[in-house]
Write the structure tokens for this entry.
Amino acid sequence: MDHQSRRWTFLTNHARVLMVIARNPTARLHELAATCQLAQRTAQRIVADLAEAGYLQKGRVGRRNQYTVNHDGPFRHPAEAELSIRALLDLTTGPKRDDTDDAPGPPRHRLDPTIGLSNERP
């Protein structure tokens, strides 16, 4: 088997689900699953894992779930344990901004796991 035929990615499904929720805290489970290319049951299990580990809190707004991401949660692997997931989320979804922050400047790069690198401002 050559190196081209082995398929692997840099990010886990847990990281992908967390990034989608960070971008859209009211995403529905079927949207999470579709965006991350997962079965809905797998996405549900991952959300439960993330909530149990303290990376997410789930609440209700009307008939929808709304998630709150704990940006200060540490990476789980010992090699990155000194880092918080904020670094990953800032890299992939853009830093959290105050709505009044309309300062001009160069575009921020934002990684969308479904389409790749984008130069659009969040």
Q: What stands out?
A: The longest strand covers residues 56-61.
